[in-house]
Write a structure and sequence with these properties.
Strand content of chain B: 15-25%
Largest sheet of chain B: 6 strands, mixed
Mean pLDDT of chain A: 86
Largest interface: A-B, 21 and 27 residues
Helix content of chain B: 25-40%
Radius of gyration of chain B: 19 Å
Strand order of the largest sheet of chain A: 1-2
Distance between the termini of chain A: 31 Å
Structural class of chain B: alpha/beta
Helix content of chain A: over 70%
Low-confidence stretches of chain B: 1-21
Shape of chain B: globular
Oligomer: heterodimer
Order of helices and strands of chain B: EEEHEEEHHHEHEHEEHH
Number of strands of chain A: 2
Shape of chain A: globular
Strand content of chain A: under 5%
Structural class of chain A: mainly alpha
Number of helices of chain A: 11
Low-confidence stretches of chain A: none
Radius of gyration of chain A: 22 Å
Distance between the termini of chain B: 39 Å
Largest sheet of chain A: 2 strands, antiparallel
Amino acid sequence: MTLFGYRIPMMASLLVWALVWEIVGRLDVIFLIPPMTAIIAAGIDLVQTASWQNATLVTIRSFIIGMALAIGVGVPLGVMMGRVKIIDNIFGLWVNIFVSAPLSALVPVLMILFGMGEATIVVTVFLFAVWIIVLDARAGVMQVPTSLIEMARSYGASQPTIMRKIILVSALPEILAGVRIGVIRGVKGVVIGQILVAIIGYGELFELYSRSFDMERFWALTMVLFAAAMVLSAIVENAEKRIEYYAGAR
Amino acid sequence: MNAAALANPALAKDEFDPASIVTNDPVVRVEAISKHYGATEALRSIDLQFERGKLTTLLGPSGCGKTTLLKIIAGLVPATSGRIVVNGRAVTGPGPERAFVFQDFALMPWATVMRNVAFGLELKGRGATERNRIARHYIEEVGLQGFEDKYPHELSGGMRQRVGIARAFSVNADVLLLDEPFSAVDEQNRRKFQEDLLRLVEMERKSFIFVTHSIEEAVYVSDRIVLLSPRPGRVSNVIEPRIDRTANPDDIRRDPGYLDVVEEIWQGLRHYAE
């Protein structure tokens, strides 16, 4: 974007809003909005506390395990659904229900099943992320040109070789797009799960800060989470771009 | 070569007679092949023999099952009944003695020209050095030297099909099966392609089975043309346009004999045209 002939860097709008926030905060309009500088100071303070570091560790651990499960189950299931009609018929309806279902409503049930601990968070992350990964992997596999598969067959490729050298590579852009959206949903899952369980990780901290009206820390924690989600998404997006040279040219 | 020498007597063609499609050393024999798609009968009892070292064209209007027949020969599509014999052995699936060239090129968009051409050899488990050497040879043969490291989307349609042809050549199959290879190529390149194909046929001494819906293309490149009629697909005629291919390509295209064969095939097919 340019303004009066000057190129405005991308983060500029962020700075403008931070400034507005700061002004509103200093005016002391509402206790919910403390000044931005105070939030940043609280944030710097926060990341040095043992409770934040422990919470982060727990959060990252449940997120990684949940995502690993979601990718490990979602990609193979999606690929199978794209290739085998019967499997598609068995799972298709369920995947489509769950991909748009308000899964937060299920977390209390998960708490009963898996207890008030990390297991529930892991399952929440998994359930938030897995469906879109399944759907995108399925879509990727279904758009593999028939002639490419015939080509590999005509040159003597076995079924596993066709899967490895043609189908998976050809579906990679869609699979990665699914993983990226899955990662974003997984971040939501880990936070919502922890808040509902309320005694572990960031959920515990959120609970603590909002109950004690510690708005500086509350916002600092929120912003750390937002930034983390964006960074994660950017990492996967970067991986997507690397293979874009052929994804765009099919 | 002047046009008079190419006049009709030199351009004899056989009337359809089942005996005329029997040869001594057929590279591919099609025996009573039928194909049904559900209730639809695509091919009815096709018997054909394809001569070694010749280029045979399957020609016919759309819906005559020519591509289906080619894919059955390739082993990519199972026949409902009948059998395919290649080099004297009945086959049921794809095999190393046959290589297929696809209408839509079927190139891997994520692989370079080099890897695409060498892919058949890669699947056969040849080492990288050997397959790249062979691939490089055929990349030059089809006129793509300098493009080894390009990706398919960086090439024109014509160049992409050259990659497909180089890939088929590099596995050193006895029979090359070409499914309307030039239909996605523009007219100028198409003519150049046909001339290049004749040169490759001459050089490589392989057998070619070629599917097209273009009468001119069929007459120009073929040693023998099998005319198929539609619904269900059957062999309706076999024509041998005995054209002297040592002539200049432009002279051949102007030759009255060549034009007569084109006209005759057209007369035979015109009632299938909408």
